[in-house]
Amino acid sequence: MSLLDRIQHLDDALSWKGDMPTQGRYTAGIAGERFFRAIKEDGQFLATVCLDCDITYMPPRLYCEQCFAHLDEWVEVAPAGHVHTFTVVHRDLDEQMLPEPRIVAFVVLDETDGGLVHYLDEVEPDEIYLGMAVEPVLKEKEQRQGSINDIKYFRPAGGTA
Question: Fewest 10 Å CB contacts: which of 1, 117, 138, 160?
Answer without folding.
Answer: 160
